[in-house]
């Protein structure tokens, strides 16, 4: 089973004070136990890295890159996909979508990934199934 992993899930796994931490930790363990194919993008890696370093410090950043990142298939955002994501954000107007969100949605569609490990309602709005 292929699952796309979003920044919201990564952060909830790492931050014990996050409202979604318990659910995220359980879902992460389940995905690993099921040997799910975990996908993300380089944009999500960058966004997650910046958030972890800023809020939880370098030890969390190190753990993410040394323990979690090797488990992931990383889809690299091309210039064309980046431009499409920018256009999608601009077209959405006030929906508070980010370039990272829109590039994630497009990557999921292109790769045929229907499930997202995320706590961001935009994935559901785009008709993806959320884990947990």
Task: Walk me through this protein's architecture.
- It is a single chain.
- This protein has 132 residues and is α/β, with parallel strands linked by helices.
- The protein has one domain (2-131): 5'-nuclease (Rossmann fold), CATH 3.40.50.1010.
- The protein has seven helices and five strands.
- The chain has helices at residues 7-14, 21-33, 42-56, 58-68, 79-92, 99-111, 121-125, and strands at residues 2-5, 37-41, 72-75, 115-117, 129-131.
- The chain has a five-stranded parallel β-sheet with strand order 3-2-1-4-5, with helices on both faces.
- Helix 1 packs parallel to helix 3 and helix 5 packs across helix 6 (99-111).
- The radius of gyration is 14 Å and the shape is globular.
- The two termini are 14 Å apart.
- The mean pLDDT is 97.
Fill in the keyword field for this structure:
single chain, alpha/beta, Rossmann fold
Shape: globular
Provide the helix percentage: 55-70%
Determine the mean pLDDT: 97
Strand content: 5-15%
User: Span from first to last CA?
Assistant: 14 Å
CATH homologous superfamily (4th level) name: 5'-nuclease
Radius of gyration: 14 Å
- By secondary-structure content and strand pairing, the structural class works out as alpha/beta
Q: Spans of 5+ residues with little confidence (pLDDT < 50)?
A: none
CATH architecture: 3-Layer(aba) Sandwich
Describe the sheet with the most strands.
5 strands, parallel
Structural domain count: 1
Task: Describe the structure concisely for a colleague.
With 132 residues, this protein is α/β, with parallel strands linked by helices. Helix content is 60%, strand content 14%.
